[in-house]
Amino acid sequence: MAFKPAAIQGHDPRVPIPEKDLHPDHPVLADGTEPNFETYLYYAKRQREKEAAESKSDDMERGFWANILWGKGGEKLAPTNFADEKKGDTSGSVSDGEYRAASSALRTASWGSVFYLITTDILGPYTNPWAFSQVGYGPGVACFIAFAIMAAYSGLLLWYMFMKLDSDRHPLRSFGDLAYRIYGTWFRHVCNILQSLQLIINVGLIILSNGQGLSQMSKFKLCFSVCNIVWMLAGMLLGQIRTLRKFGWVANLSIWLNVITLIITMGAVANTPPNYAGANLPPGPVQTVAINNLPFEDQLNGIMQMVFSYGGAMIFIEFMAEMRRPMDFWKAMAVAQLFITIIYMFFGLFVYSYQGQFVLTIANQGISLYSLQTATNAISLTAGVIAAALYGNIGVKVIYNNVFVELLRAPPLTVKSGKYLFAVSIVVYWALAFIIASAIPQFAALSALVAAVCIFQFSYTFPPFMLLGFMMQNTALSGDKPYDANNPYNSRVDTWRDWSRWRRALSRHLLINLWNFILTLACLATAVLAAYSAIKTIVTQFNTSGSATSFGCQSPVQ
After folding, report:
1. Percent of the chain at pLDDT exceeding 70
2. What is the average per-residue pLDDT within 158-187?
3. Cα 111 to Cα 323: distance, rounded to the nearest angstrom
4. Dihedral pair phi/psi, residue 367, rounded to 5°
5. Distance of alpha carbon 102 from alpha carbon 22, whole angstroms
6. Contact 466, 267 (CB under 8 A)
7. Which of 36, 322, 539, 549 has its CA 20 to 30 A from that of 215?
8. What's the average model confidence in pLDDT over 79-105?
9. How far is the C-alpha of 515 from the C-alpha of 523, rounded, in Å?
10. Euclidean distance between CA atoms 361 and 396, whole angstroms
11. For every residue of 501-536, which 3-state class applies, written as one string?
């Protein structure tokens, strides 16, 4: 973790790009029509050639191995004379030259910076010890490594498709953008809905975990629902900062807070007894097993906690979109996946080895010594509210832009009325997150549910499904006429309504397509089983006496 976030000059890829930087009404083609698949491929190829030439020049300046080992930091771009490009234009619209220049100016991040950002996880490390307690050492390590390999594979697929479809003229900005270019509007809506659902439940999970921490700090003298309300109100206030870019460095602080919490937690569990009361078990010897023969639902809920460790694929496109050299993204992802696998798995195995069956779903809350428990709770609460503010800001903007602006014709966020609506939306968003957290005060089951329904799709199901569509469309082009940038819709000799195009699409790459098709079905089946297990666990726990109830005063760790 020797890479500094300062390498990102002026913009954090996790923070949404201000609406003024990207004009929503910019004509995508000269005649105002939408670009087709061939157009994206054409300009992406030119973009990659341009980046390759720049990369070769950089290697000559700094040295090839220096770039390989450390990546290239962001660089200041030559100022663009927008006035010259807009001579004669009094309409106030964004010119084609301005749009491409603004798009290029936003690409400043190095691969070292992106590695740093991929590792800023808020939920992954803390739930891994509990995951190992549900399945045991053997299946836990095997699943962790298997998830790492498949997450790396999915990341490479996203990187490959990004390189083939992104350009300054037609930039990719989100997972939904990539989905749209391959399968159209319906798939973009699916991705946006799941992204919005994931973000609001993530905020609810942070309210729930922070509420549990605050209840421990108050020695359970404060009603648990009141603890959740405290964090809801804090989020409503913090969320009013519409542009998170202004304190992006605070978001980078969260990883260091998490690292401190992990270190204190490992030191505490190695030298203090488990939190028997929090585990709702009588004191006894710590027991660890190679294979835990719990019911299938419990094991699958535990495995889903590991998915949180590799849940960053949803914003991989945003990271690549901010990179000066997106061809280097694979380096950031490879190092980050290795870091996450080693550090997170070590933390999970370490805490499980010392606490065994007494491990809590949030590891630091399983510390029995009140002083250390309070210290880690205070640190994690700070990191949590930072992450929740970021998730909430992105979540509200996704919903606002895709539902209110696009469908309901609400004003954009750049005008005063849009800013007022945004402020109201933040309040409503955090209120809904509070309702989710208080209605289902079961952290492990709720996190397993969002992992199965949302995170698993972005990290494992969608990438092979999208590559399948990309490969078929790309192969189908082999029978078309040469692409003409001046007449982009004149190259196709048939349409997808004709069997001839489907025959060409399926004529090559049979093994790759078959593999990705089977992998997509396997991931969907796993997600359905995991969602069923999480829902069944939620129902079972509500029917168990002594469990925390919806909107109740008893803390889940009491």
Report:
1. 82
2. 92
3. 7
4. -75, 130
5. 8
6. no
7. 539
8. 43
9. 12
10. 28
11. HHHHHCCCCHHHHHHHHHHHHHHHHHHHHHHHHHHH
Q: How many residues does the chain have?
A: 558
Q: How far is Cα 324 from Cα 104, in angstroms, rounded to an integer? A: 8
What is the CA angle 132-138-140, rounded to 5? 35
pLDDT number for residue 20? 43
The CA distance from 189 to 424, in Å, is 24
Instruction: Count CB-CB contacts under 10 A for residue 34.
Output: 10
Q: Distance between CA atoms of 308 and 303, rounded to whole angstroms?
A: 10
DSSP string, 428-461: HHHHHHHHHHHH---HHHHHHHHIIIIIHIIIII
Determine the residue type at 168: D
N- to C-terminal Cα separation, the chain: 36
User: Hey, what amino acid is at 551?
Assistant: F
Q: Give the span between the Cα atoms of 192 and 488, in whole angstroms.
A: 29
Please say whether the beta carbons of 41 and 182 come within 8 A: no
Nearest to 255 by CA among 139, 369, 121: 121
CA distances from 63 to 55, 67, 69, 70 (A): 11, 7, 10, 11
Euclidean distance between CA atoms 42 and 222, whole angstroms = 61
398-450 pLDDT, tens per residue?
A: 788 777 887 778 888 778 888 888 889 999 999 999 999 999 999 989 999 99
CA distances to 104, 255, 367, 505 from 375, in Å: 44, 16, 10, 59
Burial string for 481-514 (b: 16+ CB within 10 Å, else e) reads eebeeeebeeebeeeeeeeebeebbeeebeeebe
